[in-house]
Amino acid sequence: MKVEQRPAASPSKDALTDKATLLKLYREMLLVRRFEEKTAEMYQAAKIGGFCHLNIGEEATIVGTISALRPKDYVYSTYREHGHALAKGVEPNAVMAELFGKETGTSHGRGGSMHLFSQEHRFYGGYAIVGQALPIACGSAYAINYEEKDEVVMSIFGDGATNIGAFHESLNAAKLWHLPIVFVCVNNLYGMGTAVNRASAVTEIWKKACAYDMTGERVDGMDVLAVRRITDQLVAQAREKHEPSLLECVTYRYRGHSMSDPDTYRGKDEIKEWQTRDAILSLSDQMKKQKMLDDQEIQKIDEEVTAQVEAAVKFAEESPDPDPKDLYRDVYADQVAS
Amino acid sequence: MAVLAMRDALNQALREEMKRDQAVFLLGEDIGLYDGSFKVTRGLMKEFGEKRVLDTPIAEEIIIGTAIGAAMSGLRPVAEMMTVNFIMVAMDQVVNAAAHIRYMFGGGTKVPLVIRTPGGGGHQLGAQHSHSHENWFAHVPGLKVVAPGTPADAKGMLKSAIRDDNPVMFIENEGTYAVKGEVPDGEHLVPLDKNEVKRPGEHITICAHSRMLIVAMDAAAELEKEGISAEVVDMRALRPLDMAPVIASVKKTSRLITVEEGWRSYGVGSEIASRVYEEAFDYLDAPVARIGAAEVPAPYNKRLEKIAFPGKADVIITAKALLGKN
Ligand SMILES: Cc1ncc(C[n+]2csc(CCOP(=O)(O)OP(=O)(O)O)c2C)c(N)n1
Ligand SMILES: [Mg+2]
Hints:
The complex is a heterodimer of chains A (338) and B (326).
Chain A: H1 19-44, H2 59-66, E1 74-78, H3 82-87, H4 92-99, E2 123-127, H5 133-146, E3 153-158, H6 165-176, E4 181-187, E5 190-191, E6 194-195, H7 196-199, E7 215-220, H8 224-241, E8 245-250, H9 268-275, H10 279-289, H11 295-318
Helix pairs in contact in A: 1-2, 1-10, 1-11, 2-8, 4-11, 5-6
Chain B: E1 2-5, H1 6-20, E2 24-28, H2 44-48, E3 53-55, H3 60-72, E4 76-80, H4 91-99, H5 101-104, E5 113-119, H6 134-138, E6 144-146, H7 151-163, E7 167-173, E8 180-183, E9 196-199, E10 204-208, H8 211-225, E11 230-234, E12 237-239, H9 244-253, E13 256-263, H10 268-280, E14 289-293, H11 302-308, H12 312-322
Parallel strand pairs in B: 2-3, 2-4, 4-5, 5-7, 6-7, 10-11, 10-13, 13-14
Antiparallel strand pairs in B: 1-8, 6-12, 9-11
Helix pairs in contact in B: 1-7, 3-4, 8-12
The structure holds thiamine diphosphate and magnesium ion (MG).
């Protein structure tokens, strides 16, 4: 599928030029990449069960959006959320342990790949029903207004989710109630095997904001700096003016929909073409040109990140399974007979 | 103690809880400016303002979803679904989200949320506005389900539901909003997990909840005149299901009738009967009799509707049959 990029409103460029910030974005994207590569490996080794959806290819969108948030800001996501949790600061150990179904996982092995959660990091969960989390995210935003706090909610979902009723109910309510929320659509051009133009009457997702008189933006989701710049604006708009927005990040998943997808509905050339625009390589190239980074440093970062991921696997391996006697724990907040 | 209609008892509970705790807020369709379809929320927007009494679009998923997210973020929302029929467009939020979130996130959050909604038929409203579905919700681990049948219980259970840290389905009934009864003033809390004998008796046990509790009490009064002493157990706590008073009663009477306004198949009575068979089989002198709605979509025609829903006569006839007295 060919996509036309729509240049986002041009913010001042100087915000994102310092080496420390760029290095941080680079490292975070690489962590998502290496973590997901390892996840695929562990899935194939049958260490991870169930459905497993990878973020590989979408790193710029993930890190560009979530890095614009403060620790107290909320993130709501989908079943394709390993990277979102990592970017929000959830420890790789706890994420990998959850994928392994261990007691030390973010959800104590009760959730798995699709249901990561960390109240402490305000990572408010992976939800496996398409579109379900948008209304819930609105609830957190309503609570922020109710208690007059200056926090923001980011609600992240796929292109496929923009055709479901809950999406429209949420945008309408967010605008109506002046909710401090940024809706982030990760347009990776497909919902499972169905291309956007076969599922959505409007293929430029940002335009759906127009129906709700809401700010809508489209950005190149393979360019972490572009994503970050526009997200900074929209987050500020949400925080300061309590005006919601819809941000469409056009990106691509290099792997199948899930680990069990043989990927027969799109051409290998298409995948290759998107890989030539790889966000991680682009950023390192750019930083090399600006003499902020050299090959030696790149290798060092990679080694560090890889070690972090290896440590997460070791932690997950060595962690205990949940105790069978705790099967009924946390069905309710109190002790309740069935 | 004042004599109040059910709707006013509910209103009192909401008002008292909103005064007690700033985190309590209401949301739903036409609950504010319009005062609520059944006037349960009358006057509350005027008293507490638009932030705490939120009129929503006709969008059930956003109502329940907003309530869930707010509950996970420190508030205590009370969502009104105009009737239980409309909650079906938001079942994903109720079951897949509200009920499951705590468990699937490993206890990482709680969802202190109340969903108030009336069911019930008998007003010639046809197939899309007349049914009772409390058994659907009572099927789901993670939800608490209550269905009070007296104004005092309505007040006391709503206050307890609002203070509970779990999602609570609070099932009301369109046919009981005007029913009056004595209601204790001020702090009056009724537990969400205790059923109770509302009328003691010797010969037969009748289990019922919500509007059918009233039907069962009327039937018991009539049976008394014919020398049959019926014990009526109020099944206001459906999940968790408190069976203790039923088991104790059956051990005494050896005969049991269950009455519900919904369909019998896979219903509340089916669950009660199963548990009695498991826990008190040897005490029974007759099979458990289940009374429920005719298994049809509710008809509009007045006469058809009357025979489609259970009434006093059905309970009386069934009781006599069980006792071999017809
Ligand atoms: C309500 C619902 N219908 C169907 C599914 C099955 N399903 C899971 S993911 C998916 C595709 C969603 O695509 P998109 O929103 O674009 O997100 P992506 O997977 O591309 O990140 C489908 C159909 C589901 N989980 N929920
Ligand atoms: Mg997609």
